[in-house]
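FAQ

Q: What does a record look like?
A: Structure on top, sequence underneath. For example:
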């Protein structure tokens, strides 16, 4: 499995403001959308294409389009919702699935409370949106659910990742590539990524 840490000046710039505790809720939301769009560009670079003929205002020509039924995007609730518009801004025809998980703060294990995936996910390439790849438990559960539903392939987009989460996902799903803005240092004793950017859900929605 590959891990792509997107090293682009715009990515580093926007991530710097996401990390800053002084960044307002509104700015945090906007930055998550913008950063997700940049990561989406990288995560979709290898989608298969096909050649079709179209008529321009001047002549007929051959162009490339994404092949087949294209993409299903599956945000992990709730924080993954903050990434959804950034993804759909680039891939507007994607079908959307929702994976509801919360982390048990005692065990750090994911608890599923909602699951709704596109009925035709079996003919689509799935991209899971999970802002923080921390312990990896939620990402593993989300990817497992999408695979069980029959997705043609699965990729994961996270804003930041910890080595522990990467290792966990690699162990359980070695075929799933990861795209992130940063691989951070480690997890702390509470299972949070450090230096990280705090709790993405709380910062997106102004909750504690």
């Amino acid at each position: 499995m590959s891990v792509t840490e997107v090293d682009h000046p715009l990515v580093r710039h926007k991530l710097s403001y996401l990390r800053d505790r002084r960044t307002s809720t509104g700015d945090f939301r906007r930055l998550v959308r913008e950063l997700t769009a940049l990561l989406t560009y990288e995560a979709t670079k290898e989608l298969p294409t096909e050649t079709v003929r179209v008529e321009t205002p001047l002549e007929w020509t051959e162009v490339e389009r994404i092949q087949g039924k294209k993409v299903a995007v599956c945000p992990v609730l709730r924080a993954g919702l903050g990434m959804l518009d950034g993804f759909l801004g680039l891939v507007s025809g994607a079908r959307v699935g929702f994976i509801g998980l919360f982390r048990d703060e005692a065990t750090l294990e994911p608890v599923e409370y909602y699951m709704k995936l596109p009925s035709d996910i079996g003919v689509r390439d799935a991209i899971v949106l999970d802002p923080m790849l921390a312990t990896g438990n939620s990402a593993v559960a989300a990817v497992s659910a999408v695979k069980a539903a029959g997705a043609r392939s699965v990729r994961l987009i996270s804003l930041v990742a910890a080595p522990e989460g990467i290792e966990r996902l690699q162990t359980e799903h070695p075929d799933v590539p990861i795209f992130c803005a940063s691989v951070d240092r480690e997890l702390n004793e509470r299972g949070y990524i450090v230096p990280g950017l705090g709790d993405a859900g709380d910062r997106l929605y102004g909750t504690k």
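Q: Is there anything notable about this one?
A: The helical segments are 9-19, 25-43, 81-88, 137-148, 163-172, 200-205.
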